[in-house]
């Protein structure tokens, strides 16, 4: 049976498991939109194409499936760039469908043409460096090959964004619907094989160590290895610290959790690493700038190191290791767990992690090394309230990561998504909206006022589609990190960091959502009146403009 390409593309989305697609229509993509009219796929009209792609990324994160967005040609496609780059950095399976001018006007200066011909922008080249796969589909005779490649990259073990640009006239051509039968829609299940002696050598190093420490990276979460990680940690009394992105790889409220490691952390894990650990078991952590303390060569000096990753590119990228293991983390931890049992490796001496943290914090307070002073007490109290209020877990998308990194202990019931990747401001709200189309847990977007200004109108997307959402807005009327750096590194020569804010109570009223302003700890009682499960709420948390976290990013 012959059907239009536009309908075939929608069927392709359905076969990929896409339940929701975010975007903004335009003339050059209307045939696909028309085909979506009769589809089971829910369409969500965003306020900006960047927001649509962030929504697709948020949806992919929480659903575990493919996120999808759709735009027209020209500015519709170019507006995707930052969010697609973010998906690329975070290995998110995001499919972007973009329209294009008809092929018969390529090179003639057609409206919003981006074919690269005749002086028009080259849309394919634009996305070349930020996608796993991209294609301008100028003919239908290779359409099956293109869609097969797209599916392969979206469903792989290490996925990434795919951009397909379809000229208007190609969308209207007819093709055989059976074409989809030649496309592999099953997820790749191949795993990196472990070297024959990898487990034996790991066991030997662990057995010889007195104070091993596990550094859990996001690879543990991606591999679904949290339970194995917890089991090994508890069985052998091994404390666990995590990278920022891996908060929650082990329940941070458990007895062996040291919190996260990194420049913007409180320093407890770093103190333990420096003073106590003799073996580092690095699991799926890339040791980026934050985690490596700006690639401090002394960080792991004198330690034995086991590094495990499913990407050979990550192995010894920053530090030399005594043992590197290229393989699937889930398979590695399963095999290691079995070998530790079989060889009856004894547990290490018990570690009082809570006592260590208390002592380290007391020293930090005494020497002025604590990262937050008393002016941040309401922020600290808010996160403590959040832990108490939602014992069954929440979903957090976090633009303003320094607070949650230090104040919020991510439990095994929570899902925490910090704005890592390319760290694009304005990510949290649209990403959370995308997630809200897939989950029913209480959903929070944590964002500073600078980032809020970049995506504020997407709140109306939540309103239009009644997506429950709780936005926590940190209001200090400045670009906080920039002002902090200009204070510490540029002698207080403040330029283009401060701004005036609107009256957020009135703004929330205009959006038709609820608003609470928190200026002091006592104001947290007002939050109990909010419906966090079905409502859309704006929680404004006030911070002094000149209150700076005490850490150095060296920038």
Helix fraction bin: 25-40%
The named CATH superfamily of the largest domain: Thiamin diphosphate (ThDP)-binding fold, Pyr/PP domains
Strand content is: 15-25%
> Rg from C-alpha positions?
25 Å
Tell me the structural class: alpha/beta
Q: Tell me about the biggest sheet?
A: 6 strands, parallel
* Strand runs, count: 20
Describe it for me?
- The protein has about 550 residues and is an alpha/beta fold.
- The protein has 3 domains: about 1-180, Thiamin diphosphate (ThDP)-binding fold, Pyr/PP domains (Rossmann fold); about 200-355, Rossmann fold (3-Layer(aba) Sandwich); about 370-540, Rossmann fold.
- The strands form 4 sheets. It has a 6-stranded parallel β-sheet, with helices on both faces.
- Strand 15, helix 16 and strand 16 (about 415-420) form a beta-alpha-beta unit.
- Helix 9 (about 200-210) crosses helix 13 (about 330-340).
